[in-house]
Amino acid sequence: MRLSAFSVVDAYDDDPPSRDRLGEVLLLADAAEHAGLSTVWVAEHHFHAGGVCPSPPVLLTAIAARTHRIRIGSLVSVLPFHNAVDLAEQYAMVDRLSGGRLNLGVGSGYIPLEFEGFGVDPATKRERFDVGLATLLGGLQGEAIVPSPTLGPRRLNVAPVQRPYPPIWIAVQRRDALPFVARRGVSVALVPYATVGSLGELAEQIREFRSHLPPGAEVSVSVALHLYAGERPERARTALQRYLDSRLATQSAFYQDKVRRDPRHASAATIERTGFAAFGAPTEVVSQLESFRQAGVDEVLGIFDFGGLSVADVRASIEALGPTFRAP
Question: Is-contact 94 57, C-beta < 8 A?
Answer without folding.
Answer: yes
